[in-house]
Design brief:
This is Peptidase. With about 140 residues, this protein is α+β, with helices and mostly antiparallel strands. The chain has 5 helices and 3 strands. It is elongated.
Length: about 140
């Protein structure tokens, strides 16, 4: 005899108020489930894939990260304050890294299209900075909407 029951046939434990198990009101695949930070991460991943398709030898060895806000105190070796992103050159066996700061970029964007272009421009600018090239060499559409 098989003791396995289908999930919709099993008894659900109900608490003393009769509310039962709490579940989300909408599915995880619906657009409402996506958070602003998750949407931002998706845009960043899309831009990295696009750049990797055009420049696999440049983008392949880089690491990318997203943080909510930049650190409050700049490091002593940082000559200027960068609000939207930072590029860190490779050193002591660690690969080169590009860090995007989500909240400053989202704060300056008026809509999703602006945000997508801002992410593209920041990534292209930092890649060009790391490889000592002009941003227009990496992406001819850099700086244009």
């Amino acid at each position: 005899m098989n003791n396995y029951q289908l999930p919709w046939e099993t008894k659900v434990y109900r608490n003393r108020h009769g509310r039962g198990v709490r579940t989300p009101m909408f599915g995880t695949r619906l657009p409402r489930y996506r958070t602003r930070s998750g949407f931002f991460d998706d845009l960043v991943i899309g831009q990295i894939r696009r750049l990797r398709g055009a420049w696999p030898e440049l983008i392949g060895p880089l690491q990318f990260a997203v943080e909510d806000v930049p650190p409050s105190m700049p490091a002593p070796w940082e000559p200027e304050r960068r609000i939207a992103s930072q590029a860190f050159a490779a050193s002591h066996g660690a690969p080169a890294r590009i860090v995007l700061y989500r909240m400053p970029l989202q704060g300056h964007a008026h809509n999703r299209i602006d945000l997508q272009f801002a992410i593209r421009d920041e990534l292209v600018l930092r890649v060009a900075e790391l490889y000592a090239r002009r941003p227009e060499e990496i992406d001819p559409d850099w700086g244009m909407m």
